[in-house]
Amino acid sequence: MTMIDSFEELHDRLVEAGVLVPAGVDGLYARSRAFESVAGGVMSLVDAWGDSLDAERLAFPPVVARTTFERTNYIESFPDLMGSIHVFRGDDKDHAELLRRVAGEKDWPALLEPAETVLASAACHPVYALCTGTMPPEGRLFSVLGYCFRHEPSIDPARMQSFRMQEVVYVGDESGARSHRDTGLRFGLAMLRGLGLEMDAVAANDPFFGRAGRVLASGQLEQELKIEGVTPICSREHPTAIMSANCHQDHFGIPFGIQAADGSVAQSACVAFGIERITLALFHTHGLDTTTWPEDVAAQLGLGRRA
Amino acid sequence: MTMIDSFEELHDRLVEAGVLVPAGVDGLYARSRAFESVAGGVMSLVDAWGDSLDAERLAFPPVVARTTFERTNYIESFPDLMGSIHVFRGDDKDHAELLRRVAGEKDWPALLEPAETVLASAACHPVYALCTGTMPPEGRLFSVLGYCFRHEPSIDPARMQSFRMQEVVYVGDESGARSHRDTGLRFGLAMLRGLGLEMDAVAANDPFFGRAGRVLASGQLEQELKIEGVTPICSREHPTAIMSANCHQDHFGIPFGIQAADGSVAQSACVAFGIERITLALFHTHGLDTTTWPEDVAAQLGLGRRA
User: Does residue B1 surpass a pLDDT of 50?
Assistant: First the structure.
């Protein structure tokens, strides 16, 4: 294993090797061909698992309807991470004023209005809006992919502001949700270990905001609703979560008006893969030149080999 | 050819067939597996062309540095299309006020602040920020992909708010730019005709905003800086642009401080492919069930055939 001791060092080595190209803001990068090839291979493996479950595959755009976002209660739990999209709806005169204010560094955002959309915070959010109503007895399964935005500027390459999340999501009843979460955790750990990553599973909590958030976090931890698959990237003491398996209970069933087949409020679960983080963990483990990666890892990822 | 007379009819048929899934806002859709397979095939064909030119391949996230965006002058030309990202940087007390205002439909955007990023308006914008300085004599070529946002809500499925644009971009001198634009136009038309699309090339202009914009538009048209590859989707009189080949002159060279090898201000050109529009044109031409598409089209797109 390549020895890298800090995320600053990993960042610099990835940039020097051209795997990531800094895009002018901390946590924002262009991805190289090599990065995309590995990421594509990882996504194909998750796709194949979703297909084996007969999940409906959907790709979501990076923006989501504001009405959907509002129903997720994300703004209550993670206001510091969201990205609200604002647009200009004025005329020629307003435009002249907008340009004057932008040039003068005055209060130009006041001339914009909230759009019908916000940036997607999680790949699975649009799924629940598609489920309003009553689920079949076996529930519904979705295999989804989308770019997510989290406003947490950092030079830790594993903490990007804009990254892909792939999820296999179940919506149905409590036992189905628990079972999907457990099956998905097993699949994910096995898949990632099969790619040569050292994986551990740990109960975790989301980074809920503020004082009230501490209560939510400890409740989530106590009930073991969120299990993360973690791997050491720059630190053994603080390994990085590259996948998670989550029981949402009725968190989405209530606001989206979803019922299980027996008429109770639907429960949901998702198994989520952080594509950028998994890709980084692979580069960290196998080195910055993919042509030297172990044959079996390259084969699983569908990487072409050069002579 | 499937006869579809209006974009409302095309919209309804695509939705009924499950090719696109409406996502709660006009112009916002989830993409089905079939849609993604076709889109992936199109992107591979463009990738292969970029590779044949030895272009540097980069995938960009759907958000771009605000400083990059500001240098493109997009806000001067297309203020109505852009999406500005705003974030919450407050404390517990501010958060409580934010939630009160959201619930009370009061002026909550005033509690947000502009982020360091905006939504990407064009896939090629981040390229110019990477080119600041002097180009080699042969110029530089990039093959880039990114999700773009344009705020123009519409039920015309060919006018999505969030869509992928793939571009092969040249940065160098005037003759290199002109030559890349012409070569790319020929490649694009041939590739799209090879997929069974009826293509025409027409001089066009961007939808510049307002009164001043009309002057810019007619200048662009007169100098034939923008050539669109158009195909009839819902109308023969108003075919849809699914690719374009553009000479930017020094539009990006000046604000990004780029010089050609001879010390003059760099010129640039891009050949852009609207992945969603090309995919829609293919579904329109060959039908909503990809398993019935002509063998040679399916083979070029790498579509697996079912028995």
Answer: no
Flag if B114 and A114 touch (Cβ within 8 Å).
no
pLDDT digits (tens, 9 = 90+) for A175-185: 999 999 999 99
Q: Are B38 and B283 in contact (CB under 8 A)?
A: yes
pTM greater than 0.90 (yes/no): yes
- pLDDT at residue A8 greater than cutoff 70: yes
Cα gap A219→A230, rounded to integer Å: 21
DSSP assignment string, A14-46: HHHTTSEEE-SSTT-EEEEHHHHHHHHHHHHHH
Considering only CB atoms, which chain B residues are within 8 Å of A28? 61, 63-65, 117
Asked if B124 reaches chain A (Cβ–Cβ under 8 Å), the answer is no
Q: Is A227 helix (H, G, I), strand (E, B) or coil?
A: strand
CA distance A118 to B161: 12
Chain A residue whose CA is closest to B36:
A59
How many contacts, defined by CB atoms under 8 Å, are there between A and B? 205
Which residues are CB-contacts of B98 (< 8 A; sequence separation ≥ 6)? A75, A79, B88, B90, B108, B111
DSSP string, B250-285: TTTTTTTTEE-TTSSBPEEEEEEEEHHHHHHHHHHH
The minimum CA-CA distance between A248 and chain B, rounded to whole Å, is 22
Q: Does B99 touch chain A (CB under 8 A)?
A: yes
Task: Read off the pLDDT of residues A60-79 as tens digits, 9 standing for 90 and up.
Answer: 999 999 999 999 999 999 99
Interface test with B, best of A106, A151, A215 (most B CBs within 10 A): A151
- The interface pTM score, or ipTM, of the predicted complex is 0.95
pLDDT digits (tens, 9 = 90+) for A116-137: 999 999 999 999 999 999 999 9
Q: What is the pLDDT of residues B60-85, one digit of tens each?
A: 999 999 999 999 999 999 999 999 99
**CB within 8 Å: B30 and A59:** yes
pLDDT > 70? residue B5: no
Question: Which A residues in the span 9-68 are in contact with B, Cβ-Cβ below 8 Å?
Answer: 21, 23-26, 28-33, 35-36, 57-68
Specify the pLDDT at position B305. Answer: 61
Residue B210 with chain A: CB contacts under 8 Å = 91-92, 95
